[in-house]
Amino acid sequence: MNFSGLNALVALAPPPPPAGTQRNPTGDLVYMLGMFAILGLMFYFVLIRPQQKKAREHAALLKALRPGDKVLTNGGILGVIVSVKEKSVSIRSADAKFEILKSAVSEITEKAASSAES
């Protein structure tokens, strides 16, 4: 077996304190708080910020809904918007007409011709 990787890892460890000395508790507290701050920043930039960006984009998509737009719902239904209300939209898919919540629209697959001109 080759332990050269383990030897390099052990060499990077801090040296043990001299006999008869104690660690500084204030320094340990500052180190721990610094690590929590770094982890908090990483958590924010990796998880929270992208989710907020996605929510803003979805809200902008819902504001842009117009009659005639072709949409895809979260349930996988493709349809054309017939009318837009405050919290819901009516869509026509084949021979069926549905009224769904605006939040169920996942994407606009094709914009209406009248909204593309303006």
Write a structural description:
By secondary structure, the chain is of the alpha+beta class. It folds into 2 domains: 26-63; 65-117, SH3 type barrels, CATH 2.30.30.100. The protein is 44% helix and 25% strand. It is built from 3 helices and 5 strands. It has helices at 4-11, 25-63, 113-117, and strands at 70-73, 78-84, 88-93, 96-101, 105-110. Strands 4-3-2-1-5 form a 5-stranded antiparallel beta sheet, with helices on one face. The model has no long low-confidence stretch (mean pLDDT 89).
**Total count of helical runs of at least 4 residues:** 3
Shape: elongated
Beta strand %: 15-25%
Helix content estimate:
40-55%
Q: How far is the first residue's CA from the last residue's CA?
A: 72 Å
CATH level-3 fold name of the largest domain: SH3 type barrels
What is the CATH architecture term of the largest domain? Roll
The order of strands across the largest sheet is 4-3-2-1-5
Average pLDDT taken over every residue = 89
How big is the Rg? 28 Å
What's this model, at a glance?
The chain is α+β, with helices and mostly antiparallel strands and 118 residues long.
Topology:
Layout: H1 4-11, H2 25-63, E1 70-73, E2 78-84, E3 88-93, E4 96-101, E5 105-110, H3 113-117
Antiparallel strand pairs: 1-2, 1-5, 2-3, 3-4
